[in-house]
Amino acid sequence: MPIKEMYASHEERMKKAIEVLRREYGSLRAGRATTGLLDKVVVEYYGAQSPINQVANVAVPEPRTIVIQPWDKKMLPVIEKAILQSDLGLTPNNDGAIIRLVLPQLTQQRRQELVKVVHKEAEESRVAIRNLRRDANDALKKFEKDKLASEDEVKKAQDDIQKLTDKYIKEVDHIMASKEKEVMEV
């Protein structure tokens, strides 16, 4: 049945929108060190662009410190340069064997800026989910027009899509609230 396939497809795409939001939040600096902060930082390693976690061990020994230990010592200056050029705003400390990144305490103003970014990312996810709902409803109308589904089946499917949309928007709101709380934590 095409309605069930379309429903499953749209649910999968909504889940992906949630995953993207979680990944974006993971790379957002919130005063606490996470290895996810370095996910977007890439270095050139034997001619290929690679994320830092694929050329080094990345660990968080303390709440505000990230330690990067490259597998190849020649990668130290390359990793250091990539971190400096990234938008993280962190200064790496290189001791010849490992790189330490110390996250400074966030100011109240910076926390408020981060909360705005958190809200913006959440709104982008909500819009993506609503766009998926619109696409699903358009597909349902086409099914009805092409006589692949009855008017009652389409109406029920539209209700199901709306419930699915509400569920995922509520999940976005929940994720946003927990990230906002984490950012505002002193």
What does this structure look like?
With 186 residues, this protein is α+β, with helices and mostly antiparallel strands. It has helices at 2-26, 76-85, 108-145, 151-184; strands at 42-45, 48-51, 56-62, 65-70, 92-94, 99-102. The chain folds into 2 domains: 2-26 and 107-184, Orthogonal Bundle (Topoisomerase I, Chain A, domain 4); 35-102, Gyrase A, domain 2, CATH 3.30.1360. It has 4 helices and 6 strands, in the order αββββαββαα. A 4-stranded antiparallel β-sheet has the order 3-4-6-5, with helices on one face. Strand 3 and strand 4 (65-70) form a beta hairpin. Helix 3 (108-145) runs antiparallel to helix 4 (151-184). The chain is elongated and about 70 Å long. The mean pLDDT is 87.
- Let me know the largest β-sheet: 4 strands, antiparallel
Strand content: 15-25%
Quick one: CATH class of the largest domain? Mainly Alpha
Strand order across the largest sheet: 3-4-6-5
Number of domains: 2
Global morphology: elongated
